[in-house]
Design goal:
435 residues, alpha/beta, 36% helix
């Protein structure tokens, strides 16, 4: 199960600095994909073998004066609902404020795992300035200096105590999430699917913060439809649409194997759509793009080839994904979307033998070897597929540090065309191998 850690607190206490500290710690280890623009509000972290998502709520608070308090309270309420652990950040340089007490009051009543973080303890004279925050009644206080990283190790030790271990479902059925911006037709698609005759719907129990995974069986399909309670609670959505949809989207993506990313044909691919797409890509999920409301496009403008070309240009460099034009209202190509999503799921699970990989890929490498760098030639000896949940390929060579990004893309494209990984993010690693 996905773990989410949210950072909350009043403005200017250092939430974003702490967010950057926690997420950057992972970057060199795991994030090897090129061309991925990080969303500054969402990142991944890892500590003591446990992986989790970090969300900085500060970036979503807008307004000034009295508006701040109302907005911050909304963020805290949503963080309580969606997160496994909440980091409540306070500032020792300004001391305890009324707004700190207001946030603490909500957190105390929540019953959630709350870790109180006293930030900006960046010199010896401030070592004991955190003591007044014990008045908040939130237990132990972790003193840190987010800007330098001091104290974050002890903080992370405490955080991971409250994170659950990944527990896969009891069976191996695919998990398909339908994600996208509000009003693109996600709820209509879910309701249409669950409203089909002869379907068997069995809810799987979970807590209020979890995604809902509904067993969908009918018309030759058998999978879990990953939905979120938030899609059905319109009143909550109005409170803070952007932050709420981001929280729900992250959890749905992380609980799934394949994401159907829905966009509105009448609006086109927006910056927010691309962010959602990259969330799925970054998490190495299978992806299908669904262009909904195609029935609303005028007949003389229905050029699918041109529309598809424009989408792929915006999704580059990873744009090898199926794109399906549909109308949920008229039920046009809904079954096609499910068929393709399940094909992507199978591709994501695909295993290719070392002998087959070497037979195919070494021929491509011989036809176009890595360009020389500083007079040195890279010689790739062999390739293997790593025993990971998602497709990772290791190429063993004499000088892995001299393999440049254009050649990495060449290798990835040859893997895709040779073994059909459409819709599946793959990872390429070049590793040292002596003669």
């Amino acid at each position: 199960m996905a773990n989410i850690v949210a950072i909350v607190g009043r403005p200017n206490v250092g939430k974003s600095t702490l967010f950057n500290r926690l997420t950057e710690s992972r970057k060199a280890i795991v994030d090897e994909s090129a061309g991925v623009t990080r969303d500054r509000h969402y990142g991944k972290s890892e500590w003591a073998g446990k992986e989790f998502s970090v969300i900085d709520t500060g970036g979503y608070v807008k307004g000034s004066g009295d508006i701040f308090e109302a907005e911050i309270r909304k963020q805290v309420v949503l963080a309580i609902e969606e997160s496994d652990v909440i980091l409540f950040v306070v500032d020792v340089t300004t001391g305890l404020t009324d707004l700190d007490e207001s946030v603490a009051d909500i957190l105390r009543k929540s019953g959630k795992n709350v870790v109180l973080v006293a930030n900006k303890v960046d010199n010896f004279n401030r070592m004991f300035d955190h003591a007044e925050f014990y008045k908040l009644g939130l237990g132990e206080i972790y003193s840190i200096a987010a800007i330098s990283g001091s104290g974050t190790g002890e903080l992370l030790d405490e955080v991971v105590k409250h994170l659950s271990d990944d527990e896969p479902l009891s069976d191996e059925l695919p998990r398909i999430a339908i994600v996208g911006q509000p009003n693109v037709g996600k709820s209509s698609l879910v309701n249409t699917l669950l409203g089909f005759e002869r379907t068997i719907v069995t809810p799987i129990s979970g807590t209020t913060r979890d995604t809902i995974q509904t067993h969908y069986k009918g018309f030759g399909f058998d999978f879990y439809l990953v939905d979120t309670a938030g899609l059905r609670r319109k009143d909550k959505v109005r409170e803070n649409l952007e932050f709420y949809s981001v929280m729900r989207t992250i959890r749905a993506i992380e609980e799934s194997d394949v994401c159907i990313v829905m966009i509105d044909a009448t609006v086109g691919l927006t910056a927010q759509d691309i962010k959602i797409y990259h969330l799925a890509e970054r998490n190495k999920k299978g992806i299908v793009m669904l262009v909904n409301k195609w029935d609303l496009i005028e007949a003389d403008e229905k050029n699918t080839a041109k529309y598809e070309e424009e989408i792929r240009a915006k999704l580059a460099p990873f744009n090898d994904v199926p794109i399906i034009f549909t109308s949920v209202i008229t039920k046009q190509r809904i079954h096609k979307a499910l068929e393709v999503a399940l094909e992507v799921y199978q591709s994501r699970k695909k295993r290719i033998s070392t002998s087959e990989l070497n037979r195919v890929m070494l021929a491509h490498i011989e036809a176009y070897p890595p360009p020389a760098t500083k007079g040195k030639y890279v010689k790739i000896k062999y390739v293997t597929m790593l025993p990971t949940e998602t497709p990772h390929f290791a190429f063993f060579c004499n000088l892995p540090q001299y393999v440049k990004e254009p050649y990495r893309r060449y290798i990835e494209n040859k893997i895709r065309t040779s073994f059909n990984f459409t819709g599946v993010p793959i990872s390429i690693h070049f590793r040292p191998k002596s003669d």
